[in-house]
Amino acid sequence: MAARGVVLASILLFSCFLETCCGMISFSSLQRTLLVTASHRQALLKAGEDKITVTWGLNQSFPAGTDSAYKTIKVRLCYAPISQVDRAWRKTDDNLSKDKTCQFNIVKRPYSNGNQTLEWTIEREVPTATYFVRAYALDANGNEVAYGQNTDAKKSTNLFDIQAITGRHVSLDIASVCFSVFSVVSLMGFFIAEKRRARKSQQ
Ligand SMILES: *[C@@H]1O[C@H](CO)[C@@H](O)[C@H](O)[C@H]1NC(C)=O
Ligand SMILES: *[C@@H]1O[C@H](CO)[C@@H](O)[C@H](O)[C@H]1NC(C)=O
Ligand SMILES: *[C@@H]1O[C@H](CO)[C@@H](O)[C@H](O)[C@H]1NC(C)=O
User: Which residues cross the membrane (predicted)?
Assistant: First the structure.
């Protein structure tokens, strides 16, 4: 009984700690120490097909040891301001626990000194919008401590456009539905006409 109480108390304490620790991180408090580049085909990129090559690493202008607390790197695909207008569900919030700018996970892997590269195939779920890429450095507690992005602070350079899968196939789907309805109707018409003719020839 007492043991259970202790466990409960520690869970409560731990969750309080989580609340305070993770609700407090603001984007503006993060240092921009990572260099991030994203290269891709110079065209409208297609979700589910096209690839983006992301490279990240520490900006070497920062003193040695700047990255000593970095344990994990989280790279994400983020909505550019133009694709956030009138969309509360993509809104940027300085409070990172409320921020909805970067909704798509590209990769999460242990931090390692030196540049890292990853070729990522754009996920099929990614909607049509304009994007940039951002990387967060996380400490041992999983809290964001630094970042980098392939665009400037205003999020206006090096943006790229992705076209969703659905947008491309909707017209094709409509065409095939129409075609199916048309074939069912014409088949029915054919049977009815055939029956009538049979009845007439019997009479
Ligand atoms: C950030 O949002 C979380 C969750 O809504 C909240 O608990 C926390 O107090 C907020 N932090 C700041 C600094 O506004
Ligand atoms: C690297 O960091 C330095 C110092 O903060 C900054 O002046 C420089 O612009 C950064 N380099 C790049 C490529 O962002
Ligand atoms: C990492 O990439 C940056 C450019 O993004 C480059 O200036 C730097 O030399 C690279 N570092 C290494 C160790 O390759």
Answer: 174-193
Q: Which domain holds residue 130?
A: 30-163
> Is 85 a member of any domain?
yes
- Place 163 in a pLDDT band, splitting at 50, 70 and 90: very high
Mean pLDDT of the chain: 86
Mutate to test the pocket of ligand 1, among 16, 95, 144 (most ligand atoms within 8 A of CB): 95
16 Cα to the center of ligand 1, angstroms: 13
Q: Which atom belonging to ligand 2 lies closest to the Cα atom of 59? A: 1
Domain count, the chain: 1
Question: Which tokens is 93 given?
Answer: 């919030």
Is the CB of residue 10 below 6 angstroms from any atom belonging to ligand 1?
no
Q: Whose CA is nearest to atom 7 of ligand 1?
A: 23
CB of 98 within 6 A of ligand 1: the answer is yes
- The confidence score (pLDDT) of residue 3 equals 55
Q: Output the pLDDT for position 177.
A: 66
Residues 6+ apart with CB under 8 A from 101: 78, 79, 84, 90, 91, 92, 134
Tell me if 6 is assigned to some domain: no
pLDDT of 24 reads: 84
Q: Mean pLDDT throughout 104-133? A: 96
